[in-house]
Structure formats: structure tokens, C-alpha cells
Amino acid sequence: MALSSAWALAGLFLAMFVFFGYSLRKRWQLRKIPGALGWPFLGSIPEFSIYGYEYVLGLSAKLGNVLIAWLGVEPLIIICDPALIRKYAYKCVSKPPSMSEYGHVLTGFNYDVDQASAFVASGEVWRRGRRVFEASVINGVSLAAHLPAINRCANRFVAQLAQRVAAPAAAHSGKTLGEEGIDMFSIVGGYTMAVTGEVAYGVDLGTADDDIAVARNVSILEDAGSKSGSGLGDGGSASVGGMSIGRQLVAAALASFRCLQVEHSTLYLPLGVMFPWARPLVRWLATHFPDRAQREHMAARTQIANISRLLMERWATSKKAAAAAAGTGTGTGTAITADSKAGTASAPPAEAARADGAAAAGKGAEEAIKEVGGGISSSSFMAAMMEGRRGAPQEERLSDVEVIAQSFTFVMAGFETTALTLSLVTFMLATHPEAAARLTAEVDGLGPGELTHEVLAEKLPYTEAVIKETLRLHPPIPYFIREAREDLDLGNGMVAPKGSYLTMYMHAVHLNPDVWPHPERFLPQRFLPEGSAAFGPADPGAWAPFGIGARMCVGHKLAMMMAKTLLVRMYQRFRIELHPRQPLPLKMKTGLSRVPVDGVWVTLTER
Ligand code: HEM
Predict the structure, then answer these.
(1) 510 in ligand 1 pocket by Cβ < 6 Å?
(2) pLDDT band at residue 29 under the 50/70/90 scheme
(3) Of 118-122, 228-232, 522-526, where does mean pLDDT reach its minimum?
(4) Sheet holding 480-483: strands in order across?
(5) d(CA 308, CA 302)
């Protein structure tokens, strides 16, 4: 569609918005809540604007702990009060349907996958998804089964770093050399994606040994999606556009995040956000007249979903082969079709055809997927989901779409958040040498042996405190969202009306001087017996970078294990200092997650 028609359409929506917005706003009687971000346009859509939530920090200090912003005609209530957050995070379990407003611009199969994700779904679909996550990454026995993979990926990542330090110019050309500094933020995702590959899918994605910085800011359209429509390569090629499956996943996950930032998003995203009642129309337009950003978003999502689909098929095939070898002659794997009987959401024919195409294209990519230990590992999340479907009562059985959605969610929720945490811990330690020295002494006490569950849980109190303090100052996701299912009393005569969108803005609590003494200082001892009296929080629920209540992050234990393991290995081997290339003070921006604008530049030296 010509650009001018797109803008004409936007103008039409804007006019409707002005008409309907005012009347709706009156109906909502929210005027008692201070209008922090004023009336009302893109700049006041905090999670989609570049510095939106950084801005809220200052405003909550000035205007109070309950604020209102307007998502077009929808009120967004921002709560920064720890007691209110705790109360309503426990009480409200649902996410607002508009939580997935970006999902509303997705089309076809991508839309179904998005809506089934444990991150945004509510009701039974969420419960089923949450249950499989809990079985795989909360349950102690399952977690312990992931430890060998985590150890393996950490060792490989550190070996890669050591190579760069030893021979920077020979090993890599370009920007991320040891001597020139290493942008930890750009590369540590190689480790977190490798762990995700093993734990979520049970395969070796190879990213722990790879310079994944090259996969950042890649255009998915030019690289993969546009060539095959599947993102998995033209038949026969083991990689796409020269990118391995691991790099493709990194590129697709990052592109998917990027497409949700207003400055990179499709025009249809803000339209869908501002006019909830027009979303079916917005989706129709996005389907039939996609702009470039929309196509990029769809290609990135399709790519991740198709890798999940391919791995489901692989799992089923290997089960059948195992059964045949055992002489039963019948397959025990669950058949994977685009329209599974177990499914609650079936793909329309065009989507099914695309999915078949993806599966066919995936055959070429199969060779690029290295299985761990001769098969998609049985301890993986994917295997747990697939096994769990067999013999389970119909209402508890995950559909194909749900299996894809949960493995998709695993990649999206786990890879970048944990990478952000690790790079920011590195930054905090590089700028606080006394903390780095204490952490180094602690990790040196452990020796080179495999890190067990007990070691990680009991022998690293200072390392854990450093991670927690970093997450207090720099939570990768600074807020979490709930839906008010009834009118909620917010105190001082303020009411959140039924159906409103609550943003529990934890970062403001983490930095509130009434809650945390000297909140701006990096003091890991707050989380240790020695410092908790002097520097601990006034409110027990005042630290919640992983959220609160039934919807608290289901990957928090896994994330802590991943972070501790890599920190032990890195600090045992290297001295890590800030590189002169790192601008100070650290500048962060908040989109869907909170990221360092200029990366985290450090120098590594073998100890
Ligand atoms: C340091 C790393 C991480 C941080 C800071 C983080 C943070 C969060 C936050 C703030 C939420 C929303 C919680 C709420 O609404 O109360 C969340 C939800 C979630 N996270 Fe994480 N996360 C991290 C790592 C992971 C990992 C490794 C996984 C992989 C399993 C994961 C999977 C999820 C899922 C599935 C949800 C949705 C849970 C639900 O709604 O029931 N996260 N995360």
C-alpha cells in the first residue's frame, strides 16, 4: 500500500480517537488519579516509547505512587506502591487481553501461537502452559537434570572468550576483540541461547562457541524469511543466508523484540494499541497490506515457531524409530500435524500449507541441528511437553499450537533477560572493584569441578547477592502487568475500574528511598545477614524483579542457575575491567525490556 494511504488511514483513526477518546475518558471517572503522562499520544505509551519508563521514575517521585497514562482510549494505571503491588499482584492473576496488543497485529498461525503463550494467556490455556514450565524449570529434580547442560555451555562460552583474549585479531575480525574491548551485552546471549537450546529443545545450537554479535540487528526479511518463507532454509541447505540455526534464533528473537519498539514497529501496532475496538480491522489491514516492519515481525515470529515445529517432528520421529528398534513396530510418538486432534487451535488451510512448507524446508535444516547425546534430550522442556501429552486427559493435553507457543515463549522470555542480567552484573562489578574482589575470592574457593545444585544453592552467597542487587538496580523487565477483573480500591479515593490495565512498576519500588536506604548505591550486602539491617528494604515485598504471585516468572530459578554458573567460570578465569570505550554513566532505555543503550564494554585478561 502506498505510504500516503497508510498515513491517510492513520489520520482517520486519529480523528476517531479524538471523538471517542474524550467520551470514554469521562466514563472512566479516573480523574482522581494524577495524569502523569498527560493527554495522550505515542509519547505517553510508556512501554512502547523509548525512554517512557525511565521517565516514570521521576514522575512517581513527584506525583505519587499511583499514576495514570493513556494508551489511546485505554487507561493504563501505573502502581509504584509496594503494598498495593503486593496486594493486587496476588489477587489479580489475569493479564489484560490488551497485554498482547502487539499480538493483535500478528496474523494467522503467528497470532494463534502468540495468544497461547504462557506469558500472555489467561484461564485454562495459561494454566496448562504454566504447568509444563513448572514441571521443567521449577521442579528441583528437573532443574538438577539441566545442570550438566548449563555447565557445558558455560565452559564452552568461557573457552570462546579465552580464544579471543589469546588471539583477538586472528580469531575475529571487527568490533568485539579482546584488546579493543568486548561488548558483553552483545555476546553473552551466545551462552544464554545455548542453554535455552539445550534446556528448551534438547539440542546443541552451537551459540556458546559462536560470535553471535553478528546476528544482532540482522534483517530477518533479507536474510531468511523472504527466501524460503519458513526461515529454515531452502531445501538442502543446512544454514540460511550463511546463518546457523542458533544465529537464526538469536536474530529472530532480537528482531521480534525490536519490532515491538515504537521506533521500529509497524504502523499497525500503535493503531491496534490505541483503538482496541478496531483491532479486527487493524489485523485485516496488517494481513493484506503489511508494511515492511510488519513483514519483518511476522518473519521473525514464523522463524522461531517453525524451529519449534521442526523439533516437535524430530522428537516424534525419533520416538517412532526407537519403538521400531525395540520391536514393537508401532510408533509411540504423537503425530504432528498442522491441525492436530489434540489441538484447540487449528491452522487455516493457507497456514497449514505454510507450515507444511516449513516442515519440508526444515528437512534441509535438520542436519544443522545437533542433538545432545544422540537424540533430543529427554530432560528437555520440549520432550517433557511431548511426553506429557501422551495418555493425558484431553483437557490437560497441550495442542500443537500450545507446544510451539511454550517453546517460543521459553526462547523469548529466557534468552535476552538472562543475557541482560549477566552483562549488567559484569558492568556493576567492573565499576565496583571491591565487590569484584570479594566475588572473585568466593568463586576461587570452588575449584574447577562441575557445579552441582548444592554448590550453586549454598556456596555462593555473595555471588547471589551481587546478582540480586544488580536486578534491583537494573531489572531487565521493570514492570509487570495485570488486569483488574473488578473495581479495585487504590486508596485516597482512587479506584481502578474493572477491566483496566495495571502496570506494577517494580523498578520505582526498587529505587524508592522510603523503601531502600541509599537506593542509588550498589550494596550487595543488603541481601546478606551482615547488611540487611542497615541496607535491607523496609517492606518485605520490595524486591521483585521476577514479579509476584501466581504469575511470577517461572524461569527465575533457571535464570539464577545460569547466571551463577557463568559468573563462577568467568571470574575464575579472567580479570574483567571496564573498557575506555564504555560511556559513563551507563545509559539505559526501556522498551519491552530495559537495555544498555551503548552496550557493556569490558576488557578481559587471563588471571
Ligand atoms: C533474569 C532473567 C529473567 C527475568 C528478570 C525475568 C522476569 C520476568 C518477569 C518480571 C515476568 C512477569 C512476572 C509477573 O507478571 O508477575 C516474567 C514472566 C515469565 N518468565 Fe521470566 N524472567 C527471566 C528469565 C526467564 C527464563 C530463563 C525463563 C524460561 C523459562 C522465563 C520464563 C518466563 C515465563 C514463561 C513467564 C510468564 C509466567 C506467567 O505468566 O505465568 N523467564 N519473567
Answers:
(1) no
(2) very low
(3) 228-232
(4) 66-71, 74-79, 501-504, 480-483
(5) 10
Band of the pLDDT at 376, cuts 50, 70, 90? low
Q: What is the pTM of this model?
A: 0.85
Calculate the alpha carbon distances from 132 to 25, 113, 547 in Å.
41, 16, 19
Ligand 1 geometric centre to CA of 159 (Å): 29
Distance separating the N- and C-terminal Cα atoms of the chain = 59
Q: Is 548 in the pocket of ligand 1 (CB under 6 A)?
A: yes
pLDDT score of 138: 92
Compute, in angstroms, the gap from residue 174 CA to the centroid of ligand 1.
34
Handedness of CA 240, 242, 243, 245 (dihedral sign): positive
Q: How far is the CA of 80 from the centre of ligand 1 (A)?
A: 20
**What residues contact residue 334 under an 8 Å CB cut-off, 6+ apart?**
316, 340, 342, 386, 389, 390
From the CB of 460, is ligand 1 less than 6 Å away?
no
- Beta strands 588-590 and 574-578 are unpaired
Each residue of 102-144: pLDDT tens digit?
A: 677 888 889 899 999 999 898 899 999 999 999 999 989 889 9
Q: Report how far ligand 1's centroid is from the alpha carbon of 545 (Å).
A: 9
- pLDDT for position 3: 54
- What is residue 431's predicted lDDT score, i.e. its pLDDT? 98
Q: State if residue 142 touches ligand 1 by the CB under 6 angstroms criterion.
A: no
Return the bridge partners of 595, or none.
589
| 12-22 as b/e: b if 16+ CB within 10 A | ebbeebeeebe
Q: Grid coordinates in use for 28?
A: 472512566
> Mind listing the pLDDT tens digit for each residue in 347-357?
333 344 344 43
> Which residue has its alpha carbon closest to ligand 1 atom 39?
551
The answer for residues whose C-beta is within 8 angstroms of residue 112's C-beta and 6 or more apart is 345, 347, 401, 405
How far is ligand 1, taken at its centre, from the CA of residue 413, in Å? Answer: 6
Predicted confidence (pLDDT) at residue 83 exceeds the cutoff of 90: yes
The SS3 assignment for 505 reads coil
State the residue for C-alpha cell 555451555.
153
The Cα 70–Cα 51 span in angstroms is 16
For the stretch 150-190, pLDDT in tens is 999 999 999 999 988 865 554 444 444 456 789 999 999 99
* Distance separating alpha carbons of residues 109 and 119, to the nearest angstrom: 17
Ligand 1 and 424: CB distance under 6 A: no
Angle at Cα 459 formed by Cα 458 and Cα 462, nearest 5°?
105
- The best mutation among 382, 553, 558, 562 to test binding of ligand 1, ranked by most ligand atoms within 8 Å of the C-beta, falls on 553
Cα(604) to ligand 1 centroid in Å equals 30
pLDDT at 16: 53
Query: 3 near 55, Cβ under 8 Å?
Result: no
- What would you measure as the largest C-alpha separation in the chain, in angstroms? 73
Question: Which one-letter DSSP state was computed for residue 207?
Answer: G
Which position has the grid cell 532480537?
254
- Does the CB atom of residue 397 touch ligand 1 within 6 A? no
* Ligand 1 atom with the shortest distance to the CA of 479: 10
Which residue is it, cell 507457543? 405
Neighbours of 346 (CB within 10 A): 17
What number is the average pLDDT over the span 266-279?
80
For residue 496, what pLDDT band results from cuts at 50, 70 and 90?
confident
- Spatial CB neighbours of 23, under 8 Å, sequence gap ≥ 6: none
